[in-house]
Amino acid sequence: MSTVVLMKKELMLNGLTCAHCASVIDEKVKHIDGVKNSNLNFTNKKLSVEIDCDNEEKIIKNIIDIINDTEPGLDIQIEGQREIKEDKTQKSIKNNEKLNLLKIIAGAIVFIFAFYQEIAGRENKYSLLIFLVAYLLVGSDVLYKALRNITKGRIFDENFLMSVATIGAIAIGELSEAVGVMLFYKIGEYLQELAVGKSRKSISELMQIRPDMANLKLGNTIKVVNPEDVNIGDYIIVKPGEKVPLDGVVIEGSSMMDTSALTGESVLRTVKKGDNLLSGFINKNALLTVQVTKDFSESTASKILDMVENASSKKSKTENFISVFSRYYTPIVVGLALLIAILPPIFMQGATFSEWIHRGLIFLVVSCPCALVLSIPLSYFSGIGVASKQGVLIKGSNYLEALRYVDTVVFDKTGTLTEGVFDVVKVKPVNISEDELIKFASIAEVNSNHPIAKSILNYYNKEINLNNIEEYEEIASHGIRVKYENNIILAGNEKLMASNNIKIEKSTDVGTVVYIAINNEFKGYIVIADKIKTDSEEAIRLIKEQGIKETVMLTGDNKEVANFVAKKLKLDKVFSNLLPNEKVEKIEELYKNKIAKEKIAFVGDGINDAPVLARVDVGIAMGGLGSDAAIEAADVVIMTDEPSKIAQGIKISKKTYKIVWQNIIFALGIKIIVMVLGATGIASMWDAVFADVGVALIAVLNAMRIKK
Among 28, 73, 242, 629, whose Cα sits 20 to 30 Å from the Cα of 549? Predict the structure, then answer.
């Protein structure tokens, strides 16, 4: 049985301005053989697909055929080929925008002249011709698209609705109204495109962290190359004012770094030889030599951009609801328009077809759900962009929406609420000298990357001969077992000692206690203390201000340390001495008393937190110092390692949700009112145009408020 190997491809659809067309393309692409996943983000015009590697060329051709068939004339650029055509594309888009504006202005001038003639009573045999010229100037592309879409089986889109409505108005003698409606529809569409374009630009400006070039050091020369062409281990030069193109370690130099693009913090950070450097930082004042530690695709800037740009693939329940709703809403309204136009003249005495057709046409104009299809995804994308700018990466609009419903936040302790920077505060030897106890503890911990291990090694501050270590075993949530010069060294917690039947002298100190045994004989313990983060107390207060009912801490640390931290931070509950699987069990217990709408968020930073991060409704990882495993498993990543950012994320979520529902209620409310008024003969076609493009424009502008 052969395994299907999938690859990800991205296509930019430059010139795409129709939200309805975008949804049609997305739906069709999903049904192509060999396409596993597909997502078309209308906001950034990017189509992301996962496809079968073996049939790449055929599948890409099928995708392009669908795009051209659905919306001809788009400039399609496949990932890796963008830079070749980018300038040409931008010029083409600007030229089209200018041409559309000129047609609108010319049509408006002709319409005003004809309309003035009409109201002044100067109509003549040429009036009809002048109105038709104005109509074709502003509406020819609408008529063409409507006709083209009908031949392809796509009827219920805005082009069809506007064409039928205005042609119907001309047929019943409302010529000036038909031209005026088409003119104001095009003006509204133009303004709407400007607003969406401005929103796209402002969102892209939030994420201006993609590096354009890297200064590759080759011997005594420097070559300017694409960051994708730099390999792990290569040396790059970062000059003052430049973005750091790739993650690496500073080999030479010292400088100040602007980290605001990644963290949202405006405070400059000093880096020196030996410090880690993340791509996306901006070098402020000195030359740095950096050794690259990650490929471009794995670098911090690339991962952040990938998370934000692809967040739209994980749609919120509200977005999914609107997609389904709009699929049925338009045909239903079109059906009602037909009934309004046909039934009253047949069954009502004195009712005329011209009057009721006019009312039915008003229904048609109102029926397009563009305000919702445009503004709601834009609202979520804006919310995710704003959060990213503040150092909170949210991987999908579904998680942004879920944050609003979180009523319980569960924290890991070490590295999340505390610094994760440990210092040895007490050494208690038993039948051994203090130096010997520290030496044996350091031998046990020398191969570990855990902060506790590092604190013991820093305290010992002597070299250890690694060649004499014969065996090494890390026992999850217990400690370490090492064979060194025929001695079996155990270093860990009480559970490790108990599992080896070693009697210990239990410590009563507040801190993390590492018990040491040599050849199954207890030799003492070392107490390591961890500092609470400076903003942890403020974080808990801000989180509770956002309406969080319960704060809980789960930790593998001992009861005394856990209770000390919980009391200091005013947490509601604390559970200590937990193994990774026991943390999951505690989460399950918390879920027992929850209703479906109440969500649980877990905040952690270590590899042991990955199972819990994957289990909860919203997993939040501390990304600055956190492990890759925790970041991969999480739904939200805090780039600054500051727990106070969680409250910011929840606040953005609530604001986004509020604006989304403002748009839904406003758009549907206005449309329903105009429909009712149109059916009763009160509303005019002008009101219907406002209920369509006017409402869409207002909804888009309202969505942009999230960035304020």
Answer: 629
Cβ count within 10 A of residue 273: 12
- Helices first, then strands: H and E counts in the chain: 23, 26
CA–CA separation, 634 vs 637, rounded Å?
Answer: 7
Question: Which pair of structure tokens corresponds to residue 604?
Answer: 């952690």
How far out from the chain centre does Cα 214 lie?
27
- Scanning the structure block, which residue is given the tokens 């053989």? 33
- The proportion of the chain whose per-residue pLDDT surpasses 90, expressed as a percent, equals 23
- What distance in Å separates the CA atoms of residue 587 and residue 108, rounded to the nearest whole number? 64
Rounded distance, CA 10 to CA 34, Å? 15
The predicted-structure confidence for 65-108, as pLDDT tens digits, reads as follows 888 888 887 888 886 544 444 445 556 666 677 888 888 888 88
Max CA pair span of the chain: 117
- Per-residue tokens: 272: 């020196």
Task: Check pLDDT > 60 for residue 372.
Answer: yes
Q: What is the signed CA dihedral for 125, 127, 131, 136, rounded to 10 degrees?
A: 40
Burial 301-336 (b: 16+ CB within 10 A, else e): bbbbbebbbbbbbbbbebbeebbeebeebbeebbeb
Strand 487-492 and strand 288-292: the pairing is unpaired
pLDDT at 182 over 50: yes
Q: Identify the CA nearest to 521 among candidates 464, 449, 436, 453.
A: 436
pTM metric for this prediction: 0.71
Mean predicted confidence (pLDDT) in 25-45:
83
Instruction: Check whether 281 has a pLDDT greater than 80.
Output: yes
The confidence score (pLDDT) of residue 85 equals 45
CB 567, CB 451: distance < 8 Å: no
The CB density around residue 223, as the number of other CB atoms within 10 Å, is 10
The DSSP element (H or E) to which 638 belongs, if any, is strand 636-638
User: What average pLDDT is seen over the chain?
Assistant: 83
Percent of the chain with pLDDT over 70: 89
Give the active site residue among 26, 412, 557, 617. 412
The half-sphere exposure of 268 on its side-chain side, counting CA atoms within 13 A, is 10
Closest CA to 703 of 392, 307, 327, 370: 370
For the stretch 578-609, pLDDT in tens is 877 788 889 999 988 788 788 999 998 765 67
- Could you give the C-alpha distances from 697 to 199, 276, 641, 704, in angstroms and in order? 12, 46, 39, 11
Task: Say how far apart CA 57 and CA 65 lie, in whole Å.
Answer: 12
Beta strands in 476-631 (DSSP E): 479-484, 487-492, 512-518, 521-532, 550-554, 573-575, 599-604, 618-622
Looking at the DSSP bridge assignments, the partners of residue 532 are 418
Lowest-pLDDT choice from 139-148, 169-178, 630-639: 630-639
Burial class of residue 203 (count of CB atoms within 10 Å of its CB; 0-12, 13-18, 19+) = buried
* Residue 509 known to be catalytic: no
pLDDT of residue 531: 81
How many residues belong to the chain? 708
Q: Copy the structure tokens of residue 329.
A: 């809403």
Instruction: Identify which of 21, 68, 27 has the alpha carbon closest to the alpha carbon of residue 45.
Output: 21
Compute the CA torsion angle 295, 297, 303, 305 (nearest 10 deg): 130
- C-alpha closest to that of 381 among 370, 394, 390, 363: 394
Q: Which residues pair with 480 in a beta bridge?
A: 474, 491
Token pair of 515 as six digits? 């018990």
**CB distance 443 to 489 below 8 Å:** yes
Lookup: tokens for 328: 């049925």
Tokens at residue 674, please? 């105009």
Residue 238's pLDDT is 93
DSSP notation for 273-339: TT-EE-BTBEE-SS-EEEEE-S-GGGSHHHHHHHHHHTGGGS--HHHHHHHHHHHHHHHHHHHHHHH
At residue 572, the pLDDT reads: 94
